[in-house]
Automatic annotation (TrEMBL):
Organism: Neopipo cinnamomea
Gene for this chain: Ifrd1
Calcium listed as a keyword: no
Protein name, UniProt field: Interferon-related developmental regulator 1
The entry's keywords: Developmental protein, Differentiation
Lineage, opening ranks: Eukaryota, Metazoa, Chordata, Craniata, Vertebrata
All copies of domain Interferon-related developmental regulator N-terminal, residue ranges: 34-330
Length: 434
């Protein structure tokens, strides 16, 4: 049986180790090939998890070789191949820090993204917009990112405002527009222009014909939600005088969206209201809202909603969110959350921080913790300081083996089962609790 050829052999690499004539995927195996390439770096911990030591330099070279091939494939004639390449790059950018690799190829990546957004179909446009977000997250705030946004910003705005484009593409571009502007824009004029573009989208939800039950649901709702959340993210970095103007403009209109048929719209509107109240009270400690009684009545109804025609999961999620929103509006309170990543901890103690964290978690997915540890831009956003540098010996002492984790989880499971069984036992004496 002949020996398999090595991927790094000379017939596949040109001078300088650059990939030469990377074999493009066929339409049939594009997605399969993508998954096989991405599986190795979908989880950063997979490289070191209880396995033998590996040559980090060789692993990095292998990863970069694959990524170069994916960048080339974003120019392929096949739409399915281009989309698969975009998704593969997204997986890599969300799970590893690749600043130097991207810095050398940022213009090539920008051109590929621009071409895919302009000429691609809905799925390809969504993948390209997602990659644009991750590209800016990797590059952080700086001149290079500003150049990327100057190229992609007008294209994104055009798609967002294009009524003939697919709703999914417009939704993805609205999110991308907000995130990229948040990361790179120092120009206050560009910030206001981007917010105005997003406002023109989500304010259409105010104007929908209302029946006795409130705002009727439409197929544009997902676009309105994305535009509203992107606008809210940008509001958190606005000067206080602009924040006051936006609060006066939208605070009395947003409660109408609480009656929307779509659960995600109700939640987005509720969390935006909580954030607006938080900002308003920061700018004016004596802030007074005229329709407070009517608003709190609406929020309380949503926090205790028991409508039988709604799914139990939806009702549970809605009640949980609106209990927090009601506390924020009535009592100026926020339920602090703790996020663990590596040896560090971060406390989310306000709605502004929660909105920012949720936005980046949505685009980074499982890579959020890794980026919080290593990404200078994100650490600066959340005021975490420089990355914590730990040597190999310290990391080894902190690491728990799989067998120890198994024992710990087994013990915790048994203890939890016993506690639940005791609570569920009908013979338990409940009188002692009164």
């Amino acid at each position: 049986m002949p020996k398999p050829k090595k991927r790094g052999s000379n017939h596949q690499r040109g001078a300088g180790g650059q990939p030469r004539n990377v074999q493009p995927f066929s339409d049939e195996d594009a997605s399969i090939e993508t998954m096989s390439h991405c599986s190795g770096f979908s989880d950063p911990a997979s490289f070191t998890e209880d396995g033998p030591e590996v040559d980090e330099e060789a692993t990095q070279d292998d990863l970069e070789y694959k990524l170069k091939g994916f960048i080339d494939l974003t120019l392929d004639k096949s739409a399915k191949t281009r989309q698969a390449a975009l998704e593969s790059l997204k997986s890599a950018f969300s799970s590893k820090i690749l600043y130097e690799f991207i810095m050398e190829r940022r213009m090539t990546l920008t051109d590929s993204i621009e071409r895919c957004i302009k000429k691609g179909k809905s799925d390809e446009q969504c993948a390209a917009a997602g990659l644009a977000c991750l590209l800016c997250v990797q590059m952080g705030s700086g001149i290079e990112s500003e150049e990327i946004f100057k190229t992609l910003g007008p294209v994104l705005k055009k798609i967002v405002c294009d009524g003939t484009a697919s709703i999914q593409a417009r939704q993805a571009c609205a999110t991308c527009l907000g995130i990229c502007c948040f990361i790179v824009t120092d120009d206050i004029t560009e910030l206001y222009s981007t917010m105005e573009c997003l406002e023109n989208i989500f304010t259409k939800a105010y104007q929908r014909d209302r029946d006795t039950n409130g705002v009727s649901s439409t197929h544009n709702t997902v676009l309105h939600i994305s535009a509203l959340l992107a606008w809210t993210l940008l509001l958190t970095i606005c000067p206080m005088n602009e924040v006051k103007k936006k609060i006066e403009m939208h605070l009395h209109k947003l409660p109408s969206l609480l009656s929307c048929d779509d659960l995600n719209m109700r939640i987005a509107a509720g969390e935006t209201l909580a954030l607006l109240f938080e900002l308003a009270r920061e700018t004016d400690a004596d802030f007074f809202y005229e329709d407070m009684d009517l608003l709190t009545e609406k929020l309380r109804a949503l926090a205790t909603d028991g409508n039988k025609h709604r799914a139990k999961v939806d009702k549970r999620k809605q009640r949980s969110v609106f209990r927090d929103v009601l506390r924020a509006v009535e009592e100026r309170d926020f339920p602090t959350e703790m996020v663990k990543f590596g040896p560090e901890r971060m406390y989310i103690d306000c709605w502004v921080k929660k909105q920012t964290y949720d936005t980046f978690k949505e685009i980074l997915g499982s890579g959020m913790q890794y980026h919080l540890q290593s990404n200078d831009f994100l650490r600066n956003v959340f005021e975490l300081g420089p990355p914590v540098m730990l040597d190999a010996a310290t990391l080894k002492t902190m690491k728990i083996s799989r067998f120890e984790r198994h024992l710990y989880n087994s013990a915790a499971f048994k203890a939890r089962t016993k506690a639940r069984s005791k609570c569920r036992d009908k013979r338990a004496d409940v009188g002692e609790f009164f």
